[in-house]
Amino acid sequence: MFTQCTRKCASSMLLIVLLCCILSPLAQASKSSEDIRCKCICPPYRNISGHIYNKNVSQKDCNCLHVVEPMPVPGNDVEAYCLLCECKYEERSTTTIKVIIIIYLSVVGALLLYMAFLVLVDPLIRKPDAYTQPLHNEEENEDARSLAAAPTPSGARANTVLERVEGAQQRWKRQVQEQRKTVFDRHKMLS
């Protein structure tokens, strides 16, 4: 029941956000000033250092004469200076960028909610499986045997994650030793 509510809430929130992002730009008939620009890159010329000029102009006005303001050279050198400049008209869609970012953040948020759900609620709901219970009991018996063999400083049963990992590592080492005995000492080949 909780998962259905979470899914419904997340999907409805995502739908509302996407509709707001898509419908708000449609209300604007023309492109915003951030969506178009003319970028002129002018290299160094005589004693003037190179510079990059940006201006929001139409594609037909994307040239050095309309974008470079104030003109750094005197009137008779303007043509030579503008021939060196490289002007490019650039267009982008901020609406598409916003929608992509919102979708990305929504997916990340949904995954975080799902992770929180798994961490907090799933252990309470999950029932012990009849098939895995004997395996857990066997692992606990092996842990108890390995802990009995290794003395603990306080005498209490060690239950930390590090000690469990160490116990699993010891079991793995014993298995590897047994396999080595089987292969090298007894000279048996596996098929």
TrEMBL record:
Keywords: Membrane, Signal, Transmembrane, Transmembrane helix. Pfam families: Tmemb_9. It comes from the Eukaryota. The keyword Signal applies. This is TMEM9 protein. The chain crosses the membrane at residues 99-121. PANTHER family: PROTON-TRANSPORTING V-TYPE ATPASE COMPLEX ASSEMBLY REGULATOR TMEM9, TRANSMEMBRANE PROTEIN 9 FAMILY MEMBER. The lineage of its organism: Eukaryota, Metazoa, Chordata, Craniata, Vertebrata. It comes from Pandion haliaetus (Osprey). Belongs to the TMEM9 family. InterPro entries: TMEM9/TMEM9B. GO terms for cellular component: lysosomal membrane. Residues 136-155 are annotated as: Disordered. It is found in: Membrane. Residues 1-29 form the signal peptide.
